[in-house]
Design goal:
single chain; about 375 residues; alpha/beta; Rossmann fold; 2 domains; seven-stranded mixed beta sheet; five-stranded parallel beta sheet; 12 helices; about 45% helix; Leu-bd; Peripla_BP_I; Branched-chain amino acid ABC transporter substrate-binding protein; Leu_Ile_Val-bd; transport
Length: about 375
């Protein structure tokens, strides 16, 4: 009995010591989560963010981490769905993760933001552009490394007014927070400039046949279509418009700027206009980082790779400055200017960037893009 008891005591003690050592090692890590769609129709945007965050984390850890501690990175899926946003947020909170890059999509971000903010989790989204995420919310822990739709919309409208110069425009959207928000911003700017907006209408995301709206576009006699939403619907609109003989130029926000749109639209994608973050990958200052992407066969020039890298940098620099304390990091970000791959960034009281550069690109049938001249 005594020998058995002693053996059990030694084993238990060793187990506790092992747990303590493991805990001590684990405590050296700083937990980050990237909340991205790993399921659903918008996984490509999650892949873009994952490439950016993973590259940044690899670079930071290879350089010794943050104040000697390594970043431990976890991916959490929200499928870019509003109903999944709170579920993902609760997973982050329950995992005791204090820092998030994401969520990717505006609807999921808006649904999850109150949980993150109430639980004191620092969130920096590299891609959610809806003003409703931050406007009037008084959130202390929510930030972006991308501009808002009310910055992107005017940039698109300015191009339409000054370069495209259509006679009659249709503005469509997918009835969702992001798509309808950006479409409304474009419509409002066009109407201010006295551009004839003949149609403002929503379509159902996920449908496979948009013949009815294309017939409406033909009947309205429009020569330009702006669509607020994502690439699956834009691809179908382009292809089906071509098939039905509707020859109009189409434009969309960064949500349509995805190589997958080529697979859906085929050759009819040629000439699609899209507002995107500036091509930060072409900045000579980012040459070493671009090389790091390419060494892992990742694309640094997509819509969100470098805004995601910048989001990771921002959090890391915040921790470096004030320690691994989300409250202090949020306090710091609100008053700091941080040098990132997208340039120096600073935030206003509600966590929005002081400035952001959206540019207009022309999409090509080989999946490449170029600055649009007209």
């Amino acid at each position: 009995m005594r020998a058995s008891f002693r053996l059990k005591t030694v084993v238990a003690t060793l187990g506790l010591l092992g747990a303590a050592v493991t805990g001590q090692v684990h405590a050296q890590n700083i937990k980050f989560a990237m909340v991205i769609p790993t399921t659903g129709p918008l996984t490509q945007y999650g892949d873009m963010v994952k490439e950016g965050v993973s590259t940044a984390v690899e670079q930071i850890n290879a350089a010794g981490g943050i104040n000697g501690k390594k970043i431990e990175l976890t991916a959490v899926d929200d499928a870019c769905e509003p109903k999944q946003g709170p579920v993902a947020a609760n997973r982050v909170v329950n995992s005791k993760i204090g820092y998030v890059i994401g969520p990717v999509c505006s609807g999921a971000s808006i649904a999850a933001a109150p949980i993150y903010n109430n639980e004191g989790v620092v969130v920096v989204t590299p891609s959610a552009t809806s003003p409703a995420l931050t406007e009037g919310k008084n959130f202390h822990f929510i930030f972006r490394t991308i501009g808002r739709d009310d910055q992107q919309g005017p940039a698109a409208a300015k191009f339409i007014i000054e370069k495209a110069k259509p006679s009659k425009v249709a503005v469509l959207h997918d009835k969702q927070s992001y798509g309808q928000g950006i479409a409304s911003s474009v419509r409002d700017e066009l109407q201010k400039a006295k551009v004839n907006v003949a149609l403002f209408e929503g379509i159902n995301a996920g449908d496979s046949d948009y013949s009815a709206i294309i017939t409406k576009l033909k009947g309205a006699g429009v020569d330009f279509v702006y669509y607020g939403g994502y690439h699956p619907e834009m691809g179908l609109l382009l292809r089906q418009a071509s098939e039905q003989g509707l020859k109009v130029r189409m434009m969309g926000p960064e949500g349509v700027g995805n190589p997958e749109v080529n697979a859906i639209a085929g050759n009819s994608v040629e000439g699609m206009l899209v507002t995107l973050p500036a091509d930060f990958a072409s900045n000579p200052k980012n040459a070493a980082i671009v090389k790091a992407f390419e060494s892992k066969k990742r694309n640094p020039s997509g819509a969100f790779q470098l805004t995601a890298y910048a989001a990771t940098q921002a959090i890391a620099e915040g921790i470096k400055a004030v320690g691994d304390n989300p409250q202090k990091v949020a306090d710091h970000l609100h008053k700091a200017t941080i040098d990132t791959v997208i340039g120096p960034v600073s935030w206003n009281k509600q966590g929005d960037l002081s400035a952001f550069d959206f540019q207009i690109f022309q999409w090509h049938k080989d999946g490449s893009k170029s600055i649009a001249a007209k």
